[in-house]
Write a structure and sequence with these properties.
The protein is of the alpha+beta class. It has ten helices and 18 strands. It has a five-stranded mixed beta sheet with strand order 3-2-1-6-11, with helices on both faces. A five-stranded mixed beta sheet has the order 14-13-12-17-18, sandwiched between helices. Strands 7-10-8-9 form a four-stranded antiparallel beta sheet.
Length: 386
């Protein structure tokens, strides 16, 4: 049975998706309305066409509302990695004597570590990597444990003010009264990666159409993050270099390629767009695809070097997103180039268990949890005479 619904706006590097949904049975979702609109995207933290972005947001919301039969008063907006700044730090609080750790102690750690700094951006979320008690126990939830001190390894998430201002203006003009921003990378980490895996560090890589986000995850936080303007679209763009292929034909052929297959001599890959037919050597075009993936691998290697810790050295790269996971053999090629195990992860949800759905469903999951937490706070507030 579904509960309260929330509306989310998932901002990706080639499309905008508006979705209204609620929680279903067994932690599934009930979708009330959903629509996706293509747009020109962004690179290096800048939208190519703000007017086109606005049109896409309006269209996505309008079509979504037609499906669910109601207006949208509040929207949770997902902030992509290129517009996100993650600050991780350690904080320590000491007690006068040994006692049970309380939730207020955790709040104090967060408060002491928080910085309202324009260099970081607009604060939107916090998360805990882990906590350490006075007897050196490393735990995810210390509440109720006996200790005379508490150390917290904490994550603070800040959004680029240009992003938040732009979407507040667009959504405000549409008529949305309340807007809340959520970090997509954290939402994906918490939804896609099991807690027992996150407790021992994990490496998450979301590759989209024109952007990728690399995150080192631990506990309920992120200890390192880096985003770059490179994705699956750049592989297709590399395919048309030194060829007569139009970009649309290259994208279509990319879906037919299997980098792991062994082709007989003279094999070709064909595509017909209804007006003209294209035929290219399978061996040559596969080499172009590999070269395009190698550009992506160079950036991933930089991320691995910058985010290196002894805890992540032998951890697999958990790959998600729709940028390259649909290219057959791409995972194996990337794994070979990185000299690391690469595993593809996606939502464990019937009919939506594809990496391309990861950011949208992770965002919906975090929005529903956030809405639930706020509901509990409101109930407690009124219960105590607020």
């Amino acid at each position: 049975m579904s509960g309260k619904s929330v509306a989310v706006l998932c901002v990706e590097s080639s499309e905008i998706t508006a979705l209204t949904g609620s929680r279903g049975v067994n932690n599934t979702f009930v979708f009330k309305g959903m629509h996706t609109e293509k747009y020109d995207g962004f690179a290096d933290g800048v939208f190519f066409d703000p007017a086109g972005l606005k049109s896409a947001v309006f269209a996505a919301l309008e079509r979504m509302e037609l499906s669910c039969g109601g207006g949208t008063k509040k929207v949770y907006v997902g902030v992509p990695g290129e517009f996100l700044n993650v600050v991780s730090k350690r904080q320590l609080v000491s007690f006068q004597r040994k006692r049970k750790v309380m939730s207020s102690d955790i709040d104090l750690l967060y408060k002491n570590g928080f910085e309202a700094d324009d260099r970081y951006g607009e604060f939107i979320r916090r998360g805990s990597v882990y906590f350490i008690t006075s007897d050196k126990r490393r735990v995810i939830d210390p509440v109720g444990m006996i200790s005379d001190s508490l150390e917290g390894y904490l994550s603070y998430f800040y959004a680029d003010p240009r992003f938040t201002e732009l979407f507040r203006n667009i959504l405000g003009e549409y008529g949305v009264k309340k807007i809340e921003f959520l970090p997509i990378s954290l939402a994906e980490a918490l939804y896609l990666i099991p807690s027992e895996v996150r407790d021992e560090y994990a490496v998450l890589l979301d590759v989209g159409y024109m952007s990728m986000t690399f995150s080192v995850v631990c506990g309920n936080g992120i200890v390192f993050q880096r985003a770059a303007s490179v994705g699956g679209g750049h592989v297709a763009a590399h395919m048309i270099e030194d060829t007569q292929l139009p970009f649309e034909a290259a994208e279509a052929m990319l879906k037919k390629i299997n980098l792991s297959s062994i082709d007989v001599e003279g094999s070709v890959i064909e595509y017909n767009d209804g007006k003209e037919s294209y035929s290219v050597s399978a061996a040559e075009i596969k080499e172009k695809v590999k070269e395009g993936l190698d550009i992506l691998c160079e950036e991933i290697n930089r991320c691995l070097e910058l985010g290196y810790t002894r805890y992540t050295e032998y951890k697999p790269v958990l790959l998600t997103g729709g940028g390259v996971t649909g290219i057959r053999g791409a995972r194996e090629h990337i794994s070979g180039r990185l000299n690391k195990v690469v595993d593809i992860i996606a939502p464990k949800l019937p009919y939506y268990n594809k990496p391309v759905q990861s950011s949208l469903l992770s965002l919906l999951n975090m929005a529903l949890e956030t809405e639930g937490e706020q509901g509990v706070i409101h109930k407690l507030f009124y219960a105590f005479g607020g």
